[in-house]
Design goal:
The chain is of the alpha/beta class. About 15% of the residues lie in helices and about 30% in strands. The strands form two sheets. It has a four-stranded mixed β-sheet with strand order 1-4-3-2, with helices on one face. A four-stranded mixed β-sheet has the order 5-8-7-6, with helices on one face.
Length: about 150
């Protein structure tokens, strides 16, 4: 038996703000929501499957220097779709780690965009190919490892 990722759970400081971001900007579908004071959460999916759960439990923003989640990587179908997300994220005012599409490392065809959600959690939207010729901010080191 091989394990695979079931869904991702993120602690957030403001459920309404994070729900709007993941729903309205990234296009996740709300599947269920808990509204009881002190136990607020939202289940988000792709229309059928649970993909992401937001838990309003955090008192502080994401901190990259602490052990735990490094970043959440999402995969798009095409580089054009990545660029569509980039445009929507820029319109939303998201903080990007790099300017535009970048390669995962020098000479790689894979790559994408790297940015932060409303709580500072590091996110990536990438494709396995289509980013040939894009800059590689970390040289031969993995771009997704250092942002």
């Amino acid at each position: 038996m091989t394990l695979r990722t079931g869904h991702i759970g993120l602690n957030v400081t403001d459920l309404d703000r994070s729900l709007a971001f993941y729903r309205d900007v990234l296009g996740f579908t709300p599947l269920a929501e808990g509204k009881e004071e002190g136990r607020r959460y939202a289940f988000l999916g792709d229309g059928e499957n649970l993909v992401l759960t937001l838990w309003q439990q955090a008192e502080q923003s994401y901190a990259s220097q602490r052990a735990g989640l490094h970043h959440l990587a999402l995969e798009a179908d095409t580089i054009e779709k990545v660029r569509e997300y980039e445009e929507a994220l820029r319109a939303y005012g998201v903080d990007f780690a790099h300017d535009g599409v970048v390669a995962h490392r020098e000479g790689a065809g894979s790559g994408g965009i790297f940015f932060h959600d409303p709580d500072g959690t590091r996110l990536e939207i990438s494709v396995p190919s289509g980013a040939e010729g894009a800059p590689a901010p970390s040289g031969t080191a993995p771009t997704c490892g250092f942002f």
